[in-house]
Amino acid sequence: MTTRKPSRRKAAAGADEPGLSLTERAYRQLEEMIVTLQLPPGSAVSETALSQRLKIGRTPIREALQRLARERLVTILPRRGIIVSEINVKSQLRLLEVRREVERLVAKSAARRATPEERAGFLELARRFEKSAKSNDDVAFMRVDREFNELSVAAARNEFAAGAMSLMHALSRRFWYIHYKQAADMPLIAKLHADIARGIAAGDETAAGKAMDKLLGTVAQFTRDTVTTDF
Questions:
Q1: Residues 6+ positions from 25 with CB-CB distance below 8 Å
Q2: Which domains does the chain have, with CATH numbers?
Q3: What is the DSSP secondary-structure string of the chain?
Q4: Is the predicted pLDDT of residue 14 greater than 70, yes or no?
Q5: Which of 1, 7, 80, 129 has the smallest set of CB atoms within 10 Å of its CB?
């Protein structure tokens, strides 16, 4: 598999966000490092090295790694170490089957249940998605995507959908980041996200659901295309 070299980074995710616990800060930074290939698939990591690198204590690092293991981004091998998980196209396609159903539900529920403040937040996210599309900024897009996912889950007010979503998005973002320059159109993906955000902001369940279907159809085609580009 051909992997991309990570581009130059902005300040690490969560590094300057007030109010975050050390565990949440460690999780956000480690998740971004894995998704953007600063910690590539198959690499071995250690609590000590990560603690020194992020300047965060080992207990928050350990707790963050346990969460990443639940999300299948790392594998913790007792007495042997921690390995960043490999990537599998067939697994991604199975993941998309679940994403299509869960994310359609979340988008439509968010459109129905979002508060006025949340709707304003979705409009702002739509603007930022379009800004990342114009600048073709992959890291900016992924950070907005994370916020979009978190706000969608909050606005949907369905704890069971939230649990399912938390297990899917980081894996999906990493797969996209590795392959998108070979098989995907980042500005298009960002604009499709903006369409969903606007549908939710308008309280239009039908528009939000259709926009989500269009996005995930595009992502599914992109995932299949990686078979011919990299495998």
A1: 14, 15, 17, 56, 60
A2: 22-84 (1.10.10.10), 89-230 (1.20.120.530)
A3: ---PPPPPP-SPTTTT-TT--HHHHHHHHHHHHHHTTSS-TT-EE-HHHHHHHHT--HHHHHHHHHHHHHTTSEEEETTTEEEE----HHHHHHHHHHHHHHHHHHHHHHHHH--HHHHHHHHHHHHHHHHHHHHT-HHHHHHHHHHHHHHHHHHHT-HHHHHHHHTTHHHHHHHHHHHHHHH--HHHHHHHHHHHHHHHHTT-HHHHHHHHHHHHHHHHHHHHHHHHHH-
A4: no
A5: 80
- Cβ(149)–Cβ(110) below 8 Å: no
Instruction: Name the pLDDT band for 8 (thresholds 50, 70, 90).
Output: very low
Q: What's the CA gap between 26 and 66, in Å, rounded?
A: 11
Two structure tokens written together for 65: 């790694």
Please state, as a whole number, how many other Cβ atoms lie within 10 Å of the Cβ of residue 171: 21
Please check whether residue 208 is in contact with residue 113, taking contact to mean a CB–CB distance below 8 angstroms: no
Nearest partner of 180 among 230, 146, 134, judged by Cα: 230
Backbone angles phi, psi at 57, to 5 degrees: -60, 160
Q: With a threshold of 0.70, does the pTM exceed it? A: yes
- Extract the tokens encoding 174: 């990493």
Residue 45 has φ and ψ, to the nearest 5°, of -130, 165
